[in-house]
């Protein structure tokens, strides 16, 4: 059965929802359970007698296991805790929900594509956000994306008739009536606002909270944050995740100009003012499918969930849920059970992560060749058959016993074959990704079929890359430090083997980042031949020497850089000369990693200055006035001096000078620590600003983003952004916020130049003369 949603009902039944082809939603009820498993070898007669005496617990014996069911999750939580901590037993799958348990046990259940709609609420502006659950809903709008060739459209809208509970209940009834035609309900920041308000007002109106379970609630902002963090072209998409900022950056269109601080006044006024409010709400709703058309992140999320047997709501975004779903599917019918997730508090261990070698080149590196391991961690997992289910206790040194392979640096052993469940899952997703990539390459770009294949390809990459990390997730179901480091340490070992072989051929290694190796000193033909030799000869020999039965390791030579500048590890900018194996003939956007231009925590002026310098260095951004790329230092000096002059003498907008940070606790909960000399440390800036705002009657609460402007850095005088009148400490702004990111980049590109000369010096204030100490002469001459 294809299931569009499922949830637990009060009597421990699971409701399975299926959407028929004619659009009718069918509900099927099946018995669910809160279960856990004990190994049969641990189930002594005394333990079985104890299980029989447990209130609300029943059990049955299965091959190799005792399966216990509980009447509620609270009963299971207590029993699992007691058996694990007091009896020292290993309890398996004691955290799995009834819905996940059902999908793990039944092969006939799969995820159905949901009907999607988008929604937004407008609420009573008189109630502060800190009491959002008390906000009455004034307006709702539901919209959908149109068919290909059509734009998004509003399905329906509702407006509160009177300011009373009866009218709000009727407003909600109409809202739920509209939603009956849909399964997935998408909002922006809904997890922290719209869904919270909706749940609270629904309960106040007399409905049980369970009424909301029949829909999949998805926060598109969270989807965007997760999917966009590595693909954003600039820091503009990370500066703010507010809908207006993202819509402007992605689709070039923003929210309606209506001031949301006056929603109640507009509703109360009615007529044209109320129409403005509804249009404002509708515009928010219509922006969501427009963003999705550009990015496709919600579709990618569904592809991940469909593969892993997870429902495409906000909770389905977590990598651990993806791996859980895949592993439970593979384990079905095999008799294999997995561990119970634990509370990770206090379980922290230091683990060796990805290997990164600091760049060794100075200045602008030219003709840089990059070799990339194809799916490095997944291919290591399948080559060494790495997994919590295949780990074996073998000697760390000496001969490798028959039937086993061994991680080369950690000495951890693994069963040689057959392929374990963990490695099988990785291999399966890898094959699916290859198939979907090949399909998308064959299809005409932009067609619905192409979009579907592309979404699946991207989704499968997300899933396959989730597997290695789950073995290093402390408290996770598959956590095992030895297994995790068998992957990361083997990756480092392989990169060292490749660089050693490359240097024997006269190539020079200038940088290593996990699966990417950067070299200078050879031709394209030489590197193409070297990459082919590594894949066909070097890797199989290395794998055989470690006892592996197969070798899935592949290294590719598909990109090279005409120019490349490193500022430090994980931070560089480059212009491609080859991309995906083909020479770059026209202008292509530069590769930018880790620089402030692409980061949301950098200021607007800093990003603008760095963007212009990047364009001069490698081209592609079409900002610089001089021809690009340029090696004339004077070109860069002109850019720096022009930006510097504007910072010190130009008119600066609030967006250019403000700094901001969110509050992670209440205003009064920030404490000053006592230093060794007995004095108190200063409160964090955001706490001081929040206190001033609260004192002025502004609303600030946990989660609020507090913005401020530094008026005088020496006097430590700051003001809330709302009080900005054009006064800002320009020297502090330049020296600490605007200039340092570009100074680092230019110092890396032209290390012989004294770029520190562009730092501004503050004029020294004349020192006040100190009064003489008792008995001290006022004369500067010696007494007498």
Structural Rg: 31 Å
What is the terminal-to-terminal distance?
A: 108 Å
* Uncertain spans: 775-784
Broad structural category: alpha+beta
Q: Sum up the overall morphology in one term.
A: globular
Number of strands: 27
The number of helical runs is 22
How would you name the CATH homologous superfamily of the largest domain? B family DNA polymerase, palm domain
Quickly count the domains.
Answer: 5
Q: Tell me what the CATH architecture of the largest domain is.
A: Alpha-Beta Complex
Core attributes:
Nucleotidyltransferase, domain 5; 5 domains; Palm domain of DNA polymerase; five-stranded mixed β-sheet; eight-stranded antiparallel β-sheet; DNA Polymerase, Chain A, domain 1; single chain; 27 strands; alpha+beta; 784 residues; 18% strand; 22 helices
């Amino acid at each position: 059965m294809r299931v569009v949603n499922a949830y637990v009902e009060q009597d421990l039944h699971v409701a399975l929802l299926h959407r028929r082809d004619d659009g009718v939603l069918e509900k099927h009820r099946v018995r669910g359970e809160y279960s856990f498993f004990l190994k049969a070898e641990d189930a002594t007669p005394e333990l079985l007698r104890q299980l029989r005496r447990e209130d609300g617990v029943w059990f049955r014996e299965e091959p190799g296991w005792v399966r216990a069911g509980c009447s509620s999750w609270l009963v299971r939580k207590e029993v699992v805790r007691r058996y694990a901590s007091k009896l020292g037993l290993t309890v398996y799958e004691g955290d799995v929900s009834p819905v996940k348990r059902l999908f793990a046990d039944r092969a006939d259940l799969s995820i159905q594509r949901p009907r999607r709609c988008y929604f937004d609420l407008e609420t009573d502006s008189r109630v502060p956000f800190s009491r959002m659950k008390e906000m009455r809903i004034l307006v709702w709008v539901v919209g959908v994306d149109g068919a290909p060739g059509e734009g998004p459209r509003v399905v329906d809208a509702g407006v509160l008739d009177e300011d009373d509970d009866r009218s709000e209940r009727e407003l909600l009834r109409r809202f739920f009536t509209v939603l009956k035609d849909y399964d997935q309900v998408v909002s922006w920041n809904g997890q922290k606002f719209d869904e919270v308000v909706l749940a609270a007002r629904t309960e106040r109106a007399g409905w049980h909270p369970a009424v909301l379970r029949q829909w999949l609630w998805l926060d598109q902002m969270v989807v965007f944050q997760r999917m966009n963090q590595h693909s954003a072209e600039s820091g503009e998409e990370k500066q703010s995740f507010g809908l207006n900022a993202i819509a402007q950056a992605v689709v070039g269109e923003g929210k309606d100009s209506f001031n949301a601080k006056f929603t109640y006044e507009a509703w109360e006024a009615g007529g044209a003012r109320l129409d403005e409010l509804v249009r404002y709400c509708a515009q928010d709703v219509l922006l969501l499918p427009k963003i999705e058309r550009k990015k496709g992140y919600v579709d990618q999320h569904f592809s991940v969930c469909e593969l892993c047997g997870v429902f495409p709501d906000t909770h389905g975004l977590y990598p651990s849920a993806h791996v859980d779903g895949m592993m439970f599917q593979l384990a079905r019918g095999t008799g294999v059970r997995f561990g119970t997730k634990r509370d990770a508090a206090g379980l922290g261990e230091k683990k060796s992560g990805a290997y990164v070698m600091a760049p060794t080149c100075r200045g602008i590196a030219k003709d840089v060749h990059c070799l990339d391991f194809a799916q490095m961690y997944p291919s290591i997992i399948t080559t060494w058959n790495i997994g919590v289910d295949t780990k074996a206790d073998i000697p760390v040194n000496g001969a490798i016993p028959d039937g086993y392979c061994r991680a080369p640096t950690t000495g951890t052993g693994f069963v040689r074959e057959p392929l374990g469940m963990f490695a099988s899952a990785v291999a399966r997703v890898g094959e699916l990704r290859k198939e979907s990539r090949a399909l998308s390459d064959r299809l005409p770009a932009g067609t619905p079929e192409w979009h579907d294949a592309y979404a699946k390809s991207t989704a499968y990459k997300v899933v396959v890359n989730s597997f290695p990390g789950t073995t290093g997730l402390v408290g996770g179901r598959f956590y095992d430090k030895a297994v995790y480091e068998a992957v990361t340490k083997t990756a480092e070992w392989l990169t060292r083997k490749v660089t050693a072989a490359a240097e024997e051929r006269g190539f020079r290694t200038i940088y290593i980042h996990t699966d990417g190796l950067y070299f200078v000193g050879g031709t394209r033909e030489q590197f193409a031949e070297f990459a082919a030799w590594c894949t066909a000869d070097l890797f199989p020999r290395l794998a055989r020497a470690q006892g592996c039965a197969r070798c899935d390791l592949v290294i590719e030579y598909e990109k090279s850089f005409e120019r490349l500048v490193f500022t430090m590890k994980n931070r560089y900018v480059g212009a491609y000369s080859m991309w995906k194996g083909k020479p770059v003939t026209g202008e292509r956007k530069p590769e930018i990693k880790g620089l402030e231009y692409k980061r949301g925590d950098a200021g607007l002026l800093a990003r603008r200055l760095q963007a212009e310098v990047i364009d001069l260095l490698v081209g592609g951004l079409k900002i610089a006035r001089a021809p690009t790329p340029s090696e004339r230092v004077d070109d860069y000096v002109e850019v720096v001096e022009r930006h510097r002059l504007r910072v010190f003498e130009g008119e600066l907008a609030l967006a250019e000078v403000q700094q901001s940070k969110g509050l992670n606790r209440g205003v009064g909960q920030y404490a000053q620590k006592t230093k060794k000399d007995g004095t108190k440390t200063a409160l964090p800036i955001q706490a001081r600003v929040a206190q001033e705002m609260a004192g002025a009657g502004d609303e600030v609460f946990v989660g609020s983003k507090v913005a401020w402007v530094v008026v005088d850095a020496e006097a430590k005088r700051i003001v809330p952004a709302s009080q900005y009148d054009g006064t800002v400490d320009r020297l502090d702004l330049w020296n600490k916020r605007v200039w340092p990111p570009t100074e680092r980049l230019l110092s890396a590109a032209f290390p012989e130049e004294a770029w520190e000369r562009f730092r501004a010096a503050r004029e020294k204030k004349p020192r006040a003369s100190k009064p003489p100490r008792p008995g001290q002469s006022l004369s500067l001459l010696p007494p007498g």
